[in-house]
Design goal:
By secondary structure, the chain is of the alpha/beta class. It folds into 2 domains: about 220 residues, Glycogen Phosphorylase B (Rossmann fold); about 160 residues, Rossmann fold. An 8-stranded mixed beta sheet has the order 4-5-2-1-7-8-9-10, sandwiched between helices. A 6-stranded parallel beta sheet has the order 13-12-11-14-15-16, with helices on both faces. Helix 4 runs parallel beside helix 6 and helix 8 crosses helix 11.
Length: about 400
């Protein structure tokens, strides 16, 4: 099939970690089909006078066409006023996408369009592909379903798009149920969990990983990897950690960066945990497997999630997951692979951490639990949905002629 994949969550030369999991899906899809990637990004002036706006200035340095891991990416620009135009984000993105999609469709004659991220991407793509009569499969990843769908500035646009699209995929059964309860036709929605690269995330030797990271072999390590942001609920994890029985060898390592860094630093000082909780900072994705291999346990305390790849990666490394009962996590973690808690209850987090720490875990059983969840398997499932969307679209066209 000729597939057009549209998403703003894709690696760029300036930010090679951005949307890295979408890249992994595209690479797997490209083995069984032909994928063209369009990554719309905000326009920002290239004049160096604006370079102090580091985050936004980086967009000005990204070429309109670039290559990542052998994948050619087309990157049309659109006007965006941060925060001010959030409810209009999809409209402005559509203005930037329109000519690019038409031009590429003339060249490749796409069988189907897949937009990853319901808002703004799927909404922006919707009217363009409807006019071109290309079947549209929209993919929900997490906050776009749990949050944006119920944001009054976006809800009407999202509801109309969900009515128009040929099919919807989401990354967890929980997200599927949210859409069904909001009157999206159940037969239209397929839950497809993300994949994991088990060639990188597998049973690694704990001593080797700790030596590489210069960590003591005597420590019992709980690991968090992810963004330091509100929805990740790291403050509750630290508070729960402070409630555990005193154990000189027990440490909590927090890998990642984000807007809550200073708040978390202050919390650690206030709770007198400077020797027990370590803020590592951001690391490259290629280094995450070593951190997973060095840990004894992995914890993710998020209040909302889609299908968090860090959970799949921790399981792939054979590490028990002590995490929130949200998103796809209950689909991935069972009694042999981890313990789940209520993220809104610090006492429950502490209790489940204690339970996880007290159990003996079979690392090989945990690693085996995700062996079937490869990106290649995920790509096969996406392609099945794409083929059905194409078939249904052809039938609809035939029925109207």
């Amino acid at each position: 099939m000729n597939i057009l994949l549209v998403t703003n969550l894709f690696p760029t030369p300036e930010d090679p970690e951005r949307g890295i999991f979408t890249l992994q899906l595209v690479k797997a899809l490209n083995k069984i089909s032909h994928v063209t990637v369009v990554c719309p990004l905000p326009w920002f002036p290239k004049n160096k006078i604006f370079s102090r706006f580091k985050k936004w200035y980086a967009f000005s340095k990204i070429p309109s066409v670039y290559e990542i891991d052998g994948i050619t990416v087309h990157s049309p620009r659109y006007v965006m006023l941060p925060r001010v135009s959030e409810g209009w984000h999809a409209f402005f993105m559509q203005m930037g996408l329109k000519s690019a999609i038409k031009r590429l469709h003339q060249k490749y004659q796409f069988d189907v369009v897949n937009s990853q991220w319901l808002y703004p991407d799927s909404v922006a793509v919707d009217s363009i592909v409807n006019k071109l009569k290309i079947p549209h499969v929209a993919t929900g990843l997490g906050c776009d379903v749990n949050h944006d769908l119920f944001d009054e500035s976006k809800r009407t646009q999202l509801k109309q798009m969900l009515k128009n699209v040929t099919a919807v995929t989401v990354v967890s059964n929980e997200l599927r149920q949210v859409l069904i309860s909001d009157s999206v036709v159940a037969d239209k929605i397929t839950a497809i969990p993300n994949g994991v690269d088990t060639s990188q995330f597998n049973l690694l030797d704990i001593a080797h990983c700790r030596k590489k990271l210069k960590l003591s072999l005597n420590e019992k390590i709980i690991l968090y990897v992810g963004r330091l942001s509100e929805e990740k609920n790291i403050e509750s994890l630290i508070r729960a950690f402070s409630m555990l029985e005193k154990d000189e060898e027990l440490k909590l390592y927090i890998v990642g960066d984000g807007p809550l860094l200073n708040l978390l630093k202050s919390l650690i000082v206030n709770l007198k945990l400077e020797k027990k909780v370590v803020l590592v900072g951001k690391v490259e994705h290629s280094e995450v497997s070593c951190w997973m291999g060095a840990a004894n346990y992995f914890s993710l305390p998020s209040v909302r999630e889609g299908c968090p790849n860090v959970v799949l990666e921790a399981l792939g490394c054979g590490r028990p997951v002590i995490a929130s009962r949200v998103g796809a996590i209950p689909d991935l973690v069972n009694q042999d692979t981890g313990v789940l808690f209520d993220p809104n209850n610090v006492e429950d987090i502490a209790e489940k951490l204690s339970l996880g720490l007290s159990r003996k875990w079979d690392y090989s059983v945990i690693a085996d639990s995700v062996k079937s969840l490869s990106w290649e398997h995920a790509a096969e499932r996406y392609l099945t949905v794409f083929k059905l969307a194409f078939k249904n679209s052809r039938n609809d066209i035939a029925g109207t002629t």
